[in-house]
Design goal:
Helices cover 32% and strands 10% of the residues. By secondary structure, it is an alpha+beta fold. A hairpin with a 3-residue loop joins strand 2 (65-67) and strand 3 (71-73).
């Protein structure tokens, strides 16, 4: 939500997509997510810029190996994956790796199929392999539905029209340094549906 408050054009584009696919006579449901590629791109881009944690859980190398860049890792070495830096690497994500650009996850057909240049293989906010978070699918669906309903039903703005401070605080999960405070108003198109709830 913080990223959308600082990128109102993306919020409007997502709201227009929701209106076109779901309409205003009912609330967005999980089954609608497949038809909302831009909303899914927003979630992917948010997880790219702000992964759940900056590093994955430490692992121990089970055998001697060589990793990217030709670095030798001895058996028994503790290995940390710096997801935050990897998902902002300009060599992978292009000239604007720190900017919020949901379109980077759109494929040629306007769907969400990963990036054409292979950058999506460097996306791992939930980990990868057999130790990947088992809740990834549920988390993506729940975030998609929650964000989609918030955009479908309300107009959002930062409290007092202030700039949103996107700086990161300290901690294992990279909280915002300044807590987000936003104000919402029901969208005129959704008022009758919201009153009926």
């Amino acid at each position: 939500m913080a990223l959308l408050l600082t990128n109102q054009s993306a919020a409007k584009k997502a709201t227009a997509e929701i209106d076109a696919v779901v309409g205003t006579s009912r609330l967005l449901q999980e089954s609608d997510l497949a038809g909302l590629p831009y909303l899914r791109c927003i979630v992917s881009e948010t997880l790219r810029l702000y992964p759940l944690a900056p590093n994955h859980v430490p692992h121990e190398a089970s055998r001697d190996c060589v990793v990217a860049g030709g670095h030798a890792v001895a058996r028994g070495t503790m290995v940390l994956v710096d997801v935050y830096s990897m998902q902002r690497d300009p060599a992978v994500w292009g000239q604007r790796p720190d900017e919020f650009v949901p379109e980077r996850f759109m494929d040629d057909d306007g769907g969400v199929g990963g990036r054409r240049d292979g950058g999506s293989r460097w996306m791992m906010p939930f980990g990868m392999g057999r130790r990947k978070c088992p809740g990834e699918s549920l988390a993506l669906r729940m975030v998609g539905v929650a964000l989609g309903v918030m955009l479908q039903c309300f107009e959002w703005e930062p409290e007092g029209g202030k700039e949103v401070d996107m700086s990161e605080g300290s901690g294992l999960t990279m909280p915002m340094a300044t807590p987000l405070v936003a104000v919402c108003r029901p969208r005129a198109e959704m008022e009758s549906l919201l009153k009926a709830l």
